[in-house]
Amino acid sequence: MRKAGALINEYLREGKLSSNRSNPVGQGGNAVVYASDTPGNVMKQLKDRDRGRFGLPDDEPAVIDEANLQAIAAEMGIAPRVAGVETFRGGIGNRIEMEDVRDNFEMPPVSSQWPTGKNAVRVNQQLGQLALKGVRLGDRHAGNVVYNKMTGRPLQLDFGIGDRVSGADQVQALAEATAEGFRAAGIGDVGDIFRATVYDLLEGGQVTEAMDVAKQGFSRLQKIKAPLEGAERYKPNAATTGYAIEDFIPG
Ligand SMILES: Nc1ncnc2c1ncn2[C@@H]1O[C@H](COP(=O)(O)OP(=O)(O)O)[C@@H](O)[C@H]1O
Ligand SMILES: [Mg+2]
Fold first, then answer.
1. 4-99, what's its fold?
2. For the chain, which residues make up each domain, given as ranges?
3. What predicted TM-score, i.e. pTM, was given to this entire model?
4. Nearest to 104 by CA among 144, 155, 143, 142
């Protein structure tokens, strides 16, 4: 009898979820997002069969990777809290349950596909923080980032395109976020020199040194609050002998 009761409950729950799914909260290329049966949560359910990360027969479902990456960011306070993952036979209907963030976060009116200005500075600061934790997160188009209604602080959605990185890949992830952040801040020239410096070190196999420079650059980016309009600064270039990274990144 207990078993029958559990089956009936599961049936009722699936009925409720499928009715919620017909009125989604949001949709992307891969998933439909709808209200969970637990109030305050949403379900992100993959539209297509989950074939695993590499499409190999014994791959772990891709939703598990996605949820794990998101959980790292949630721990840092920059993504919705993950409530659970459910996988089904054949990978059909796999879903992640997470906090519904619509009360406090919103998408601003979209003027371009990618974040710009202050939003882009802040998004890249968060991407750099993630890189330091060994997470490279991609696909940061306007549909994948929401902003706090009061403070404008970004929150990252959609960890579908992301992976764990270490070594030179981690350095690159940190350097890219930093250089993009500088560009968004209006000092793309600084970003270019910084990027070239890091990549030169990587090409020479000096991963530790490259990470050191990347971290120095990123700590400068972290201090920028908004795009620097008409900022006066000393501008050496890569040809200036004896320059240090401190000389061309504003403090
Ligand atoms: N935690 C959430 N709370 C509220 N809305 C969300 C949440 N996660 C996703 N959404 C909405 O659902 C849309 C699609 O989610 P997303 O994770 O980007 O799916 P996809 O992988 O298909 O692009 C988002 O653009 C957003 O509007
Ligand atoms: Mg998306």
1. Phosphorylase Kinase; domain 1 (3.30.200)
2. 4-99, 105-247
3. 0.90
4. 155
